[in-house]
Design goal:
This protein has 358 residues and is an alpha/beta fold. The chain has two domains: 16-255, 3-Layer(aba) Sandwich (Aspartate Aminotransferase, domain 2), CATH 3.40.640.10; 258-357, Aspartate Aminotransferase, domain 1 (Alpha-Beta Complex), CATH 3.90.1150. 35% of the residues lie in helices and 15% in strands. Helix 1 crosses helix 6 (240-256), helix 2 (44-61) packs across helix 6 (240-256) and helix 3 (75-87) runs parallel beside helix 4 (101-113). Bound molecules: pyridoxal-5'-phosphate (PLP).
Length: 358
């Protein structure tokens, strides 16, 4: 089998150029005689990889020198736990906006660590939607407010990023660097790398140094954002190979141009939503004004037809279309590296499928 069209939500498709580049130097990294996987994490080779990867995140997100970028193992879920441990303390809580499963999971971890409040909750809404800034009730004394810019399971994005009175923190796992955005509005943002930025194994975490300086001194060093601030020596062995592939993916993104990638993402999503809206056979999961550009979630008239759709699509070379196990349905994840030709193929397949089963 050649390369399938991979609609998985993550680990997700990587640019083919990145995979071939990694393959070329897999065994001997540019004449060093060792693989990146075998290179010392405090050596020159990895030092340059890490520095360039962090610099590219800052460049692509338009962040200034007051920011640090870290590659922290444990994925986005580790950030759900790390964040409240760093910033919640006696009498100081945090606000959470929950518009889907992931925001809810982040909130749950904050409740374990301290005082967490729901500022808005649309988790049970159908169709799925994210609250507008006017619907959010902020607590002005919160240590931070947490949002999820794109809920991967329901394919629901926040169309408008709010301006809360407290430092804004975001889980951007499924839409980081997929569109131009004012990243300087945030005090911290993070993403599991395995969707838009590389393979699994790390979260990319960007934070204002001034925000990290306010974090608790009473937590283990490995969990403290201060430990990961720029200029600090590595605390422990990082996932060197994951960071290397993140670097190659960021170089690819820079060469493509974020504006071009965004235009392509919009075009891919528009084609898929047009297919979903083309007849009553399909039903979109998210409200139209909140539709994700990364994850297109939709239903068919029955679960039997959904199973058949996934099976037949796979036989036709399109994998990863099954919705999240908690939600069912179909989900086409079309991150930066997903080719537009794959979307065209899926749209064509949807038409054929409806003709046969509608
Ligand atoms: C928006 C969002 N947040 C958090 C997570 C959890 O990420 P991880 O598996 O890296 O912990 C996911 C996983 O799909 C996600 O989509």
């Amino acid at each position: 089998m050649g390369r399938a069209y991979n609609f998985s939500s993550g680990p997700a498709v990587l640019p083919a150029e990145v995979l071939y580049e990694a393959q070329k130097f897999l065994v001997d990294f540019k004449g060093t005689g060792v693989s990146v996987m075998e290179t010392p994490h405090r050596g020159k080779v990895y030092g340059a990889i890490r520095e360039e990867a962090a610099a590219l995140v800052k460049e692509l997100a338009g962040l200034d020198d007051g920011w640090s970028v870290a590659f922290i193992p444990g994925g986005a879920s580790m950030q759900f736990a790390m964040l409240p441990l760093n910033f919640l303390r006696e009498g100081v809580g945090a606000d959470y906006v929950c518009c889907g499963t992931w925001g809810g999971k982040a909130f749950k971890q904050a409740q374990i660590a301290g005082d967490a409040n729901i500022a808005a909750d649309t988790r049970k809404a159908s169709p799925a939607y994210a609250p507008s800034p006017a619907e959010i009730r902020w607590n002005p004394d919160a240590a931070y407010v947490h949002i999820t810019t794109n809920e991967t399971i329901s394919g629901c994005r926040m169309p408008e990023i709010p301006d809360p009175p407290s430092p804004l923190v975001a889980d951007m796992s499924s839409d980081i660097l997929s569109c131009p955005r004012d990243y300087s509005k945030f005090s911290l943002f993070y993403a599991g790398a395995q969707k838009n930025l590389g393979p699994a194994g790390a979260a990319v975490v960007a934070f204002r140094d001034s925000f990290a300086e306010t974090c608790s001194a009473a937590i283990p060093e490995i969990l403290s954002y201060r430990t990961y601030a720029s200029g600090r020596p590595l605390y422990n062995t990082p996932p060197v190979w994951t960071v290397y592939i993140i670097l190659l993916t960021l170089r690819w993104l820079k060469a493509q141009g974020l504006e071009n990638v965004f235009a392509r993402n919009r075009s891919k999503a528009a084609k898929l939503y047009a297919a979903v809206d083309s007849s009553g056979f399909w039903r979109g999961v998210a409200r139209k004004d909140c539709r994700s550009l990364s994850n297109v979630a939709f239903r068919l008239p029955s679960e039997e037809l959904e199973d058949l759709f996934v099976k037949q699509a796979e036989a036709a070379g399109m994998v990863g279309l099954k919705g999240h196990r908690s939600a069912g349905g179909i989900r086409a994840s079309i991150y930066n590296a997903f080719p537009e030709a794959g979307v065209d193929r899926l749209v064509e397949f949807m038409k054929e499928f409806e003709r046969r089963n509608g």
